[in-house]
């Protein structure tokens, strides 16, 4: 009977290696895990959405502010021109009916009235027009341009001419201002009150309140209003106790 000698390998003993700063460190694996990539994509999407919403809000605010400024500029321009022309209102007792101030109802645009008076001002008159020099009758109110768009229209004609036969010249002043309303302070017969009509065909008022109507800032909103009280130097004097028109 043979006896086999079997040798079992000795257990590997873990040998401690002294630490050396110069010894090479283990290199981490290259690339990113799928979870890391997905988290990065989510973070980028959230940051992009926040940035886009902020940019959109700033853009809308800037656009709205620009529209408001445009309307303010148009409103201020028209009010300045109206003030200049109204304060230059002419009137002579020799033929008062030819110089009378007029208010008529206007069905075009947002305003209620169109007004007419005689003036020597060149307000609203384009350069080169004969009406820029000398007296003329001017009418301001809502109207339409050739494309059918509502806006503010100015019409002028010789103040002593027959209005039924004279050729009148009109200009489309602003498409932002859609019309006007007018109130006058009546001092005739001791009434001393604001009125929205002027039935005197041979007189001018001493105080006028003009309200301009511009397009609303938002759809279905009320029109933007520009209001100013104008004193007429040649009109009858008014007291300092006059309150604003309602």
**Mean residue pLDDT:** 81
N to C succession of SSEs: HHEEEEEEEEE
Helix coverage percent: 10-25%
Secondary-structure class: alpha+beta
Count of separate DSSP helical elements: 2
The low-confidence parts are none
For the sheet with most strands, the description reads:
5 strands, antiparallel
The strand order across the widest sheet is 1-2-3-4-5
Instruction: Please indicate the percent range of residues in DSSP E strands (runs of 2 or more).
Output: 25-35%
Coarse morphology: elongated
Distance between the termini: 134 Å
Give me the count of strands: 9
Radius of gyration (CA) equals: 40 Å
Task: Describe the structure in your own words.
- There is one protein chain.
- This protein is an alpha+beta fold and 246 residues long.
- It has a domain at 67-231.
- It has two helices and nine strands, in the order ααβββββββββ.
- The chain has helices at 34-87, 96-99; strands spanning 102-105, 113-119, 136-144, 150-157, 169-174, 177-186, 193-195, 207-214, 224-231.
- The strands form two sheets. A five-stranded antiparallel β-sheet has the order 1-2-3-4-5, with helices on one face.
- Strand 1 (102-105) and strand 2 form a beta hairpin.
- It is elongated, with a radius of gyration of 40 Å.
